[in-house]
Amino acid sequence: xAEEKHHHHLFHHHNEEEKPVEAVTYSETAYGSGGPGExxxxxxxxxxxxxxxxxxxxxEKEKKHHKHKEHLGEMGAAAAGAFAxxxxxxxxxxxxxxxxHKIEEEIAAAAAVxxxxxxxxxxxxxxxxxxxxxxxxxxxxxxxx
Length: 145
Prior knowledge:
Elements: E1 23-35, E2 38-49, H1 53-93, H2 98-137
Antiparallel strand pairs: 1-2
Helix pairs in contact: 1-2
Protein name: Abscisic stress-ripening protein 3-like
Organism: Sesamum indicum
Pfam families: ABA_WDS
């Protein structure tokens, strides 16, 4: 049988730059004999994944990005709603241009609804980024429904 060299060094690097560790594996080999002329070899290998810090940082950055966009959408919805109320007030105050103010009120109300939809969308994206981050860290999810 040809002998193979196995290197089991924890800190052995071929070059100076460090590479991220994606999985850790531990291997143990045992030798024994069952009687005269009988020999055996057993190998037990245990491995687990180590979360990649770059991916975790990327998920955190994405989560922050969506949170920021969600807050901007909230401000946009509030501003559009306030403008719609202002135009409603102007329509009552200025009967000569009532039709124009009514149209602007409806446009502002539609913009507020659209901004609310955008906020909902960004909130969903933020939750997805959070779940991906937790998955990368190895946290378990229990979805019951």
